[in-house]
Amino acid sequence: MPEPDVIKSVRSLFPGSKDKKGESIIASISTHIDNLQNKSPPFQMAVGGGAGLCTGYLFTRGSKATATILGVSLVFSRLVGHLLPGPHHLPTLHFKDKTVLITGASSGLGASLAFELYKSGAKLILTARRVENLKELCESLKRRHTSNPYEPEYRHLDITNISDVESLRSLAIDGSTIHVLINNSGISMRGSVVDTPVSIHKQLMETNYFGHVAVTRALLSAIPDEGCIIATSSVQGKLPVPYRSAYTASKHAFQAFFDTLRCESRPQLHILVVSAGYINTGFGSRALDTEGRPIGEEDENQRRVKYIVFKWVFLVI
């Protein structure tokens, strides 16, 4: 488990690993924080308010008025956070001994996520059109992470031609439950609005929107409330970008679908939409031109990114 930020801050005050007193203080604070997190919200508010009063009193040279304002503000913010609905009420999700299904797993971000999740002890079901790539990926996973007891599975899946997706449930640990669904398949394009034909718009909507709608609807009943749907979107799902009209439109639709799903009948289900920026995965070179052909080269901004960033998922959940 990662250390809370407050523990990291305290640890920075005792950088020496041989400082037994520092380690003792850190261990004591960590124990108190763990105990506090298991208490009821009113108790947490009282402790937080008291801490605010003490802190304010100490750092304002005994100003009772300022200390009182700080303490009340802490209590009020904690109360508001407790009353308002939102993902902060959801439990922390861990991937060990969970079944995770990834679409678009044959390369790039999907493959990188596969390595990170398999290292975390997850059972993986990897899907894509390029089956040979998936087979090689599964062999690499087993060689690199021998401590994971689960055999990684792979299956062909064309996101634009969904058929019998429900059968993937049989590959799960218990033969039915998909704890985490990662909707990662996608394709981009380059071209002006004037030059891009409607056929390109339709192709991107089939891949980036309708395919994910079909997969999610087919597997939704297999995902428990303590599970998660992760949807790999883009900043272009929120902002317009010139010469990306079809891609931007498809990602706006993608964003809206999962935002709507989050508002419906299962408020306890994690639904995380990741609005990624430039990532050096080769995705840009597979973007289609106005004739429907891959352009074969990365954007300049993507070439500048030296590392594939995939840990954002684990930082957010």
UniProtKB/TrEMBL annotation:
<dbReference type="InterPro" id="IPR036291">
    <property type="entry name" value="NAD(P)-bd_dom_sf"/>
</dbReference>
<protein>
    <submittedName>
        <fullName>NAD(P)-binding protein</fullName>
    </submittedName>
</protein>
<comment type="similarity">
    <text>Belongs to the short-chain dehydrogenases/reductases (SDR) family.</text>
</comment>
<dbReference type="GO" id="GO:0016491">
    <property type="term" value="F:oxidoreductase activity"/>
</dbReference>
<keyword id="KW-0560">Oxidoreductase</keyword>
<dbReference type="InterPro" id="IPR057326">
    <property type="entry name" value="KR_dom"/>
</dbReference>
<dbReference type="Pfam" id="PF00106">
    <property type="entry name" value="adh_short"/>
</dbReference>
<feature type="domain" description="Ketoreductase">
    <location>
        <begin position="98"/>
        <end position="282"/>
    </location>
</feature>
<dbReference type="InterPro" id="IPR002347">
    <property type="entry name" value="SDR_fam"/>
</dbReference>
<dbReference type="GO" id="GO:0016020">
    <property type="term" value="C:membrane"/>
</dbReference>
